[in-house]
Amino acid sequence: FSLQEIHIKEPIEKQVNPHLLPGELLLCEANTVYKYIQEDGSNRGTYGKLVCTNFKIAFLDDESASDDNEPQLKNKIVGENDITLQCVDQIYGVYDEKKKLLTGQLRKYPEKLIIYCKDLRVFHFCLRYTKEEEVKRIVSGIVHHSQTPKLLKRLFLFSYASAAPSNTDGRNQTMMFDTLEDWRDELERTKGNVKYKAVTINEGYRVSEKLPLYFVVPICVSEENILKYEGRGIPIWCWSCHNGAALLKMSAFPKEQDDSTSQTQKAFLDGIYKTISKAPYELLKTDDLSSSLPSLQDIQTAYTRFKQLFLIDNSSDFWTTDVKWFSLLESTNWLEIIRRVLKKAIEVAECLERQHTNVLLIEESATDLCCVISTLVQVMMDSYSRTKSGFQSLIQEEWAIGGHGFFDHCSHLHKSDKEEAPVFLLLLNCVWQLVQQYPPAFEFTETYLTVLSDSLYVPIFSTFFFNSQHQKDTNTSGESFKTQSGPFRFLTVWDWSVQFDPKAQAFLNNPFYAEKPKPDKSQRKTTRFKHQRQLSLPLTTTKSSTKRGFFREETDHFIKNILGKRIGKLINSSDEPPNSFREFYDSWHSKPVDYHGLLLPRIDGPEIKVWAQRYLRWIPEAQLHGGGTIATAAKILDLMEEVQSLQVKMDEEHCQAVSGDVHSVPLLRNSARLSSLFPFALLQRQSVKPALPTSTWKDLEVEDDLVKRDDEFVDLTSDMP
Length: 721
Prior knowledge:
32% helix, 4-stranded mixed sheet, sarcoplasmic reticulum, 8-stranded antiparallel sheet, PH-like_dom_sf, 721 residues, alpha+beta, Myotubularin, PH-domain like, cytoplasm, globular, 16 strands, Myotubularin-related protein 12
């Protein structure tokens, strides 16, 4: 294309410099880089400077966002045009209109750069008008610093921690579980201290480097047994139910062992099981998650396919894939994995709640799927875990201190894709299902979950960085990690003031949270998103979900409905819940919800949905302007503000206290200007008109004239891969 064929903004004349964090260094830069706005498939965009630092890739132009266009949830660390090096997923170069994956040393430099991010943003940069030397420097620099393996202590986490002032305290009522007192307090809170004890045997990591310094075991388990196999084969306490039944986890012995070793280990396990099956302990049920749930490789494969549906290059690609949306969504298997994980959590909850049975979760390391199920069970059964501080404490206990391999699974060093697995992201997707089904039960919002998922890739926090407490401790010792004010401390992600100002933090808190139990059957009905794309898979013709549609003419109205009579085999008949499970499940769902009691997610077919806010927030075509649940929330918040203002007028002496409440809720003026994906979508953003190729419309018309049909069910199984 020529300069005449694109809508351009003249190159900036004035010098624009990046905002650098403490410890952040500018490594390379390129001027006269053209950034595309890929909203409608055109080549519109703006000129600016592309820079790479030891923390991020950033595009700088002289356009300061106006008040109307600035995102409401502005991040103080990562700007709208910033990509942290940890957030880079893949980088492609375009050579003669052909895309090529960029890794390692480059012999030829591309005319266009496409960066796909782990938070699903896609950036397109044109380098045709950039000086050749600058192109070489910036492309080589970006590829090297974001894709090439490096030493752990060279990562920005350490640069920032040694340079930044350590004057923040992010505990914020969050229990960090790095002290013995925290574990004892949790035992006391759950009344588990009668049968379980916090132990100090791993101080100095003399039992295992994989275990935390402190953990909880049954009182009857001796220190000798804990030491014998480096903590393997020992039931570790997670949580105690109100009836005394407990949730435990265990790191399994390796399966491939010689006969004599296997027999010895089996005898050891039998002794442990007998000890904790006798009074005062309840009956014990074991569950080997490695055989009852998908493998980490299956989870990674499913998510890799799933995320491709949302890494959209341009508007035309979006509408082209829209025709096969259901079959593409089902073929990823991601929603089915979420359903299976939630089903397993319900099974465990049934044992604890109804059968008063202890449940022992078993996994090779007890730090992956054990963390997922244990966290979900506690969110479902313990209302404290549905508060913000309670949920954060739970993540600390089970994941950060519990030894989940964030460093390997998030591929922070880019060493190997084999270890990569979105286990924590799977948990957040499952928790989101509960949040959107029972909003009043949670003190936090889906926006909180979304920014929590984004924080995985902001390497100034240690919370989601290391594989274990031992790895963190050993990498913060030594002379090189002392500042003028003493040994440095890593930041914790739970100090939200580091990323957001008070106004933005208000979006993380649910103004509709039910402070006290208010069983109300009418509140169980979930408000459905009416997005252009159907966000769940239909189960049968008698139970279909809301419509999805596409534009044919230049209008913002949905005009057609394409739903399948049955899209593939959505729930395995052999995988149907057993009778006792179905009885427990149906019985609970037939009663009014106690938002401070047990919560069971709805898991049948279309009830499992796509997390719209996280996966569709960067796709303008998937947004409803002035619509979605945010429009309803805006109206309610306006009423709340009006009521509070009247209260102020009625009672002047309490003005200060009440006005504080008023400002704790973001003021959503003029809900017609909001997008359904607010606060991530910008305000006053024009609706994007589809640029569908003529061939696509012809394909649609051939299929028995689908475009002209209204509210009919059409069998789309023929397009299944």
